[in-house]
Amino acid sequence: MDYVIVAFRSRTHTMRFAEELRKRGVPSEIVNTPKQAYVGCGLSVRVSGRYFPFVKRLAQSLRYDSFAGFFAFSGGGYKSV
User: Fold this and answer.
1) Radius of gyration, CA atoms only, the chain
2) How many Å separate Cα 13 from the centre of its chain?
3) Positive or negative, the Cα torsion across 62, 11, 6, 36?
4) C-beta separation of 30 from 44 below 8 A
5) How many Å apart are CA 51 and CA 40, to the nearest integer?
6) What is the pLDDT of residues 4-14, one digit of tens each?
7) Which has the closest alpha carbon to 1: 64, 42, 50, 65?
8) What CATH topology corresponds to 3-75?
9) Is residue 69 a contact partner of residue 9, using CB atoms and an 8 Å limit?
10) CA 77 to CA 56: how far, in whole Å?
11) 80 closest CA partner among 36, 30, 27
C-alpha cells in the first residue's frame, strides 16, 4: 500500500490525531477525505503505508469515538482496511 487515510467524523479529532502522530515523529498530513471513502467530516490524516501498523495501534489506543476507519491507497484505488 502506498499510503493510508485515517478518517474521523470530527475535524477536532482529525487535528488531534495528526498532532499525536507529529509528537511521535510520524510524518503525516491533513488532506481532504477522498469521496470514495464515503465517511467523515471532510478532513482526514494521510500517512505512508509503512507506518500503518503503528498508526493502527495508536488509533485504537486513543479510542476517538468519531473514528471512521482506515482506507489504503494502492494501485490507483482505495479500499477499507
Assistant:
1) 11
2) 11
3) positive
4) yes
5) 21
6) 999 999 999 99
7) 50
8) Alpha-Beta Plaits (3.30.70)
9) no
10) 20
11) 36
Listed residue (77, 79, 19, 12) closest to 69, CA to CA = 79
Q: What is the DSSP letter of 67?
A: E
Contact 14, 45 (CB under 8 A): yes
Q: Each residue of 39-66: pLDDT tens digit?
A: 877 999 999 999 999 999 999 999 999 9
Distance of CA 52 to the CA centre of its chain: 9
Residue with cell 475535524: 11
- Residue 74 carries which side chain, given as an amino acid letter? S
What's the gap between Cα 22 and its chain centre? 13
**Global pTM value:** 0.88
Q: How many CB atoms lie within 10 A of CB 4?
A: 25
Contacts of 72 by beta carbon, 8 Å cutoff, 6+ apart: 1, 2, 3, 4, 5, 49, 52, 78, 79, 80, 81
